[in-house]
Design a protein that fits this description.
elongated; two-stranded antiparallel sheet; about 230 residues; mainly alpha; about 60% helix; 5 strands; 3-stranded mixed β-sheet
Length: about 230
């Protein structure tokens, strides 16, 4: 198993939850409607969707309890305060400032590979306009998302982009120094970083901001850093 660090960050959690609903859920339903078994099992992209969906479910179940609760709140569109999560903890800088909490996630590399494999297929389908049934499914998902999409309109490209942003964070390999100071089990304690650990935290959180604001303006990156330091 791989050890990853994932943040109590509403932006990343929103992308992560959207990987399942409406994205993987809708893709699997569309594929099952188009290709009944045993044809379903013989085709490439429907099987990729199913493998990715089961992988996402395992990753979600592996989230530490406090972060899983925050993810569910974000999925319901609720405002959350990370410190209020039952069983959460406080992460402090050497100056006593509060950081956005990081949680240890144990994830199977095969599950990351399943998600990355589907992402590659989706990107190829959108960029080259291949897999017409898959692209049509993405268009339907985008239409359903349009009323709530920033700017008023979604698209297959935006849907795939959100999936990529969520996966980008899961793929970041954390610094060993930072990993060593974030306990696997966190039950309300205060974790105070020293100066070296704090520098590692800052570098890691910048990578998270880059991942979740990929393809956006520099202003989006700066705003994310401001609220997720």
């Amino acid at each position: 198993m791989l050890r990853r660090l994932v943040p109590a960050d509403a932006v990343w959690l929103a992308h992560f939850m959207a990987m399942e609903d409406p994205f993987l859920h809708s893709l699997e339903l569309d594929a099952q409607a188009l290709y009944p078994s045993p044809m379903y099992e013989a085709l490439d992209w429907p099987v990729l969707v199913t493998h990715a969906y089961r992988a996402w479910e395992r990753v979600f179940r592996a989230l530490p309890g406090p972060l899983r609760e925050l993810a569910l709140r974000v999925g319901r569109g609720e405002v959350f305060f990370p410190d209020a999560a039952a069983g959460g903890y406080t992460l402090n800088s050497p100056r006593g400032d509060r950081h956005v909490q990081l949680y240890v996630l144990h994830v199977d590399p095969e599950d990351l590979s399943a998600l990355a494999g589907l992402l590659h297929r989706l990107q190829t389908a959108v960029e080259r306009d291949t897999d017409p049934e898959l692209v049509d499914s993405l268009r339907r998902i985008a239409e359903d998302l349009t009323p709530s999409s920033p700017g008023g309109m979604s698209s297959p490209t935006k849907c795939v982009d959100g999936f990529e942003r969520a996966l980008n964070v899961l793929q970041i390999k954390p610094d060993d120094l930072l990993l060593s100071c974030i306990p696997d089990e966190l039950t309300g304690q205060v974790v105070a970083l020293d100066s070296a650990q704090d520098a590692a935290y800052d570098a890691f959180s910048q990578r998270i901001s880059s991942a979740v604001t990929a393809h956006d303006s520099p202003w989006a990156f700066l705003m994310h850093r401001m609220f997720n330091a």
